[in-house]
Amino acid sequence: MAGRVQYFVSSEFSAPICELYFCRHCLKLKSSSCVSHEVDSLYCPNCLENMPSGEAKLKRNRCASCFDCPSCHHTLSTRATTLAATTGETDPEAQAAPRKAFYLACGFCRWTSRDVAIKDQTVSSGGWQDQENTSSKRISVLLDYYRQLAMKEKLDKEKKKYSRRRSYLQLSDKYGLGHVARRSNSLMGGLSKDVDNVKIHDVEPSIASDDVENLPDDLFTKPLVLAQVTNITQRLANPEFQQPSADGLYPIHKHLLIKRSLRCKECEHNLSKPEYNPSSIKFKIQMVAVHHIPEIRIMSIPNLKLNQPSQVILTLFNPLDFVVRVTLLPHTSKSDTTKLAQVELPCSELVLSRCDDAVEFDDSGFDSNESIEDDASVIVFRKANKIGFFITVMPLHENEDVKVMFCLRHNYRTMTTALPTDASAAESVSLEHTICINFGQLTSD
């Protein structure tokens, strides 16, 4: 039921706590729209090889040695087979030794590179031929043309930026700023030379033609085999060719994936940074909110009836390594959600023990929760860093989901230094989060 409990990042956006980040410098919850995404590395998900960004751009963000099946889009594997020696060989040793040949095959749909008459290779490293695009020369000419236009526009903007104004010349003569004017003139001279050096070659425009290829004669008489007709997904996977029949499907080079880091837009500190190695799933920095903010979950939902108060059991987890004191406060804003149901929150403070991963393996019998006195009317149970407590909910509308909103206030220790020498040196602050819980529809009688 994690999706039923929403933490508000702003007044308009909320999400489950497992989808949020926490910035320990801003002391705020952050969503994916509150952070800037940076590409750390590009790699192939099949061979797990890193590729520099320049090389990836030249290869259109695809791996040169790994392929996807054009039929079902699963990864193709290299299969080896043995071929008998040809009778045309004059050397008797060559006739006696069989040759190994390699081809691509899909283990899911049984598609092979032999289905489209791609020749087998003598080495397993690859070298399979790609389809040749007849319009590749035209595309490269257009790319060069627009690249030159972009360069000229950029130089024109810089020239306007450093252009001389009449008022500036008057001020330079009046206040003796001639050396500044001469420096500006030298910059302007260099920019004007760069603009003049950019030569834009004319491109032959495309001419529309009235000649249209005729339809094949057997279009209406040839039986239609749906297994040989490609679907939309297969055609859009290779937009350069979009083969109408399955006989023209060629292997598709595998797309590269990225490892990205997330940075807070306010303080520009990293919230998530993975390791560079593609085979590693660990993170150097991973500031997910579930590791820093107490998490509320729904333990049980009773039969909710209109205008009748019901007790609901919620659970509260402490992911931090120190004791957290939580206070639940009513939400002050008069939103539509607060009008759907009334909620009665515990008046007392909820104390959560620190998170200790080794407590379940401790055989000494010591319980850190023995010194905490709980109110039986509020606390249902207490176990390690987890407690269950009661709240009272009374629905007010019949045809709407029962939703309640309240604020969660808790203490937090700010440890912004890399190596804190003393735990007591960390500053304790109070944080407050707005939470919305959806209990679903009313129970029908």
3D architecture notes:
The chain has 445 residues and is an alpha+beta fold. It is built from 6 helices and 22 strands. The chain has helices at 53-58, 92-96, 136-161, 166-175, 178-197, 232-236, and strands at residues 5-8, 14-15, 21-23, 28-30, 35-43, 50-51, 62-68, 77-83, 99-105, 252-255, 257-264, 270-274, 283-286, 295-300, 310-317, 324-330, 341-344, 350-352, 379-383, 386-395, 403-414, 427-438. The strands form 6 sheets. A 6-stranded antiparallel β-sheet has the order 2-1-22-21-16-18, with no helix packed on it. A 5-stranded antiparallel β-sheet has the order 6-5-11-12-13. Strands 14, 15, 17, 19 and 20 form a 5-stranded antiparallel β-sheet that branches. Strand 12 and strand 13 form a beta hairpin. Helix 3 (136-161) runs antiparallel to helix 5 (178-197). The longest helix is centred in the middle third of the chain and has 26 residues, at 136-161. The chain is elongated and about 90 Å long. The model is unreliable at 165-177 (pLDDT under 50).
Summary tags:
445 residues, alpha+beta, 6-stranded antiparallel sheet, 22 strands
Average of the residue pLDDT scores: 83
User: Helix-strand pattern, N to C?
Assistant: EEEEEEHEEHEHHHHEEEEEEEEEEEEE
% residues in beta strands: 25-35%
What is the oligomer described by this structure?
single chain
Could you estimate the helical fraction of the residues in percent?
10-25%
Main beta sheet strand tally, sense and closure: 6 strands, antiparallel
Count all strands and give the number: 22
Low-confidence stretches: 165-177
First-to-last CA distance: 24 Å
Q: Mind telling me the C-alpha Rg?
A: 34 Å
Q: Write down the overall geometry.
A: elongated
Number of helices, counting only DSSP H or I runs of 4 residues or more: 6
- Adjacency order of strands in the biggest sheet: 2-1-22-21-16-18
Structural class: alpha+beta
